[in-house]
From TrEMBL:
Belongs to the AAA ATPase family. RarA/MGS1/WRNIP1 subfamily. InterPro entries: AAA+_ATPase, AAA_assoc_2, AAA_ATPase_RarA/MGS1/WRNIP1, ATPase_AAA_core, DNA_pol3_clamp-load_cplx_C, MgsA_C, P-loop_NTPase. This is Recombinase RarA. Residues 39-151 form the AAA+ ATPase domain. One of its GO terms (biological process) is DNA-templated DNA replication. The lineage of its organism: Bacteria, Bacillati, Bacillota, Bacilli, Bacillales. CDD domains: AAA, HLD_clamp_RarA. The keyword Nucleotide-binding applies. Keywords: ATP-binding, Nucleotide-binding. One of its GO terms (molecular function) is ATP binding. Signal peptide: none annotated.
């Protein structure tokens, strides 16, 4: 037991020892009062690694009088579930913590669900994935609470570190340690809101530091060197990764260069370069669009270069592309117009193609009425090229406007042409 990691030994034993997450299970929350009174509802604990899902489950178990069992869905089998069911029948009610619940297969669910439904098994499920995307609806419907946990704040992490430094029974309190407030803050910042990383880093720094006259003196060099090794929570392909992609796009759309570069950095550290490049290409056309059509070509070139270069050099063209998109004029008019047309078609608002637009490149086309098309290039209009007043939409949709120009950047000029051509049509 002495070889257990500090992060394991410092897990809270009851609700009052939980650090952080006060918004969901603090002393003033309904959930806290329910559990203190002996009522534990089935719930899903959702959030990134290291923010307290397992700790909260253990704290609930320590506060509750129910028999407690823990399983991991990645390797639990039907026999494990059947054993829990037998325990529930004998005890009347048990508390089951199921980590990685999104990996539960149908057979395991079918074995467990009736007992969760009748209350003999109180289920505490933990997942790093969005439960609305990755947890079976049958499980979700039987969990009264979906508890979204947040990354711990710097203050939370420092409180956790101080607890570990002073706790003689489970922490480092029996050792004499010299550590400054600035050093604890550096450890907390390096952990990135992850309690497990913070405690692991604290323990590593303790063993890496020199002892002087019986006092372990934490060194800045050890903290800096070890902090670089704790890594970034990337969750490639998971909910957090897609949240990062969403945050990147919304930051570019909002023209916030610094936020966009931050999310780009996080995504590149997560390791899925192809997914990042695909999202940047979409953004060039979805968010910049006609306001600056050249951006599409620029981003295509940047993403092609990034794929060829690979990391870490790929970050250079991608950073250029992101800054350019942030500071570019923006328009979503083109794809919004197309979506409006698609919506109309799906609603059944269609019509026949006008005869003069139908294919006439074969003998007999004129006998079918496929004639009367006027070739616009034969009628020049200033420097525009050519234009004639003829109907292109089906009769049922004549006059419908899908495109609503955005007066921004290059599209301002296009909008002027659009309105000018409409005025010609209205005159005729």
């Amino acid at each position: 037991m002495h070889n257990e990691p500090l992060a394991y030994k410092m897990r809270p034993r009851n609700l009052d020892e939980i650090v952080g997450q006060k918004h969901v299970i603090g002393p003033d929350t309904p959930l806290y009062h329910m559990i203190q009174k002996g009522h534990v509802p089935s719930m899903l604990l959702y959030g990134p690694p290291g923010i307290g899902k397992t700790s909260i489950a253990n704290a609930i178990a320590g506060t509750s009088s129910l028999p407690f069992f823990a399983l991991n869905a990645t390797h639990a089998g039907k026999k494990d579930i059947e054993q829990i069911v037998m325990e529930a029948r004998m005890a009347g009610k048990v508390l089951l913590f199921l980590d990685e619940i999104h990996r539960f297969n149908k057979l395991q669910q079918d074995t467990l669900l009736p007992h969760v439904e009748n209350g003999s098994i109180v289920l505490l499920g933990a997942t790093t994935e969005n439960p609305f995307h990755d947890v079976n609806p049958a499980i979700r419907s039987r969990c009264g609470e979906i508890v979204q946990l947040a990354r711990l704040t710097i203050e939370d992490i420092i409180e956790l570190l101080n607890n570990a430094l002073t706790n003689k029974e489970r922490g480092l309190g029996s050792y004499t340690i010299q550590v400054t407030t600035e050093q604890l803050t550096r450890i907390a910042e390096a952990a990135g809101g992850d309690a497990r990383k913070a405690l692991t880093l604290l323990e590593s720094v303790y063993y890496a530091s020199d002892e002087v006259d019986g006092v372990t003196v934490f060194s800045d060099t050890a903290i800096d060197a070890l902090a670089k090794r704790i890594g970034v929570y990337g969750d490639k392909g998971g909910s957090h990764f897609y949240n990062l992609l969403s945050a990147l796009q919304k930051s570019v759309r909002g023209s916030d260069v610094n936020a966009a570069l931050y999310y780009l950095a996080h995504l590149l550290e997560s390791g899925d370069l192809v997914a990042v490049c695909r999202r940047l290409l979409v953004m060039a056309y979805e968010d910049i669009g006609l306001a600056n059509p050249a951006v599409g070509a620029h981003v295509t070139a940047a993403t092609d270069a990034a794929i060829r270069l690979g990391m870490p050099e790929a970050r250079i063209p991608l950073a250029t592309a992101v800054v350019e998109m942030c500071l570019s004029d923006k328009s979503n008019s083109a794809y919004k117009a197309l979506d409006a047309a698609i919506r109309m078609i799906n609603e059944g608002k269609t019509g026949d193609i006008p005869n003069h637009l139908k294919d006439a490149h074969y003998a007999g086309a004129s006998s079918l009425g496929h004639k009367g098309y006027l070739y616009p290039h034969d009628t020049p209009v200033g420097t525009f090229g050519g234009w004639v007043d003829q109907q292109y939409l089906p009769d049922e949709l004549a006059g419908t406007e899908f495109y609503q120009p955005v007066i921004a950047g290059e599209e301002k000029r296009m909008a002027g042409i659009y309105e000018r051509l409409k005025s010609f049509k209205n005159k005729n």
